[in-house]
Amino acid sequence: MEIEKTDSCKAAAKPRGRPLSFDRDQALEQAMHVFWQRGYEAASIAELTGAMGITAPSLYTAFGDKERLFLEAIERYATGPGGGYPRALEEEPTAYLAIKRCLEEAAEELTRPCHPPGCMVTMAATNCSVASAHIQAALAKRRAAADAGVRCRIEHGIQNGELPADTDAAALANFYATVFRGMSIQATDGASRESLLATAAAAMRAWPGVPQAS
């Protein structure tokens, strides 16, 4: 983010260019919503600059290009609306409660009316051309890291005796990742919060053994 220099700093070194005439953080927030709604390729520079309230030259000055703007928007999503998943895995005392919370919070977040429906990391690079394969690969890598976090939480639960010793951690993690992504697609198709909560509840009934409430 652009930081305004003090007078003493200005005296010590000349600024490289004119300071930004807009709120970069707010502009990035608006760009995130456009990419979330339209996807990477479908979002045009005109749509982005219109939502951000800036000109195309200002976009390139502040963010470099469309690709770098998109990757910054994805990072903003991951630490904002999409940040509940890792927090649940870290904060809950058992693997069962962690994944249950992940799905229940997803049902809430994926259907909030204040932003586009669904998961941005799941939806933003679908139907991209070969030219954007590297963008798809970057998002696939991020999804794989999220799946690995779920698998590690399940493995920890097996070690602690929360799940049967013969539980296939990778398969179970893949199952819940698939449920989450299916919920994201359902949300973009207009599924309600109540419908997604019902899906989450059904998925948790597939948990191996008898889960502990706390």
UniProtKB/TrEMBL annotation:
InterPro entries: DNA-bd_HTH_TetR-type_CS (IPR023772), Homeodomain-like_sf (IPR009057), HTH_TetR (IPR001647), Tet_transcr_reg_TetR-rel_C_sf (IPR036271), TetR_C (IPR011075)
Superkingdom field: Bacteria
Keyword list, A-Z: DNA-binding, Repressor, Transcription, Transcription regulation
Domain HTH tetR-type: 21-81
Classification via PROSITE patterns: HTH_TETR_1 (PS01081), HTH_TETR_2 (PS50977)
Record has DNA-binding as a keyword: yes
Short name of any one Pfam family annotated for the protein: TetR_N
DNA-binding region: 44-63
Protein name, UniProt field: TetR/AcrR family transcriptional regulator
Organism of derivation: Roseateles violae
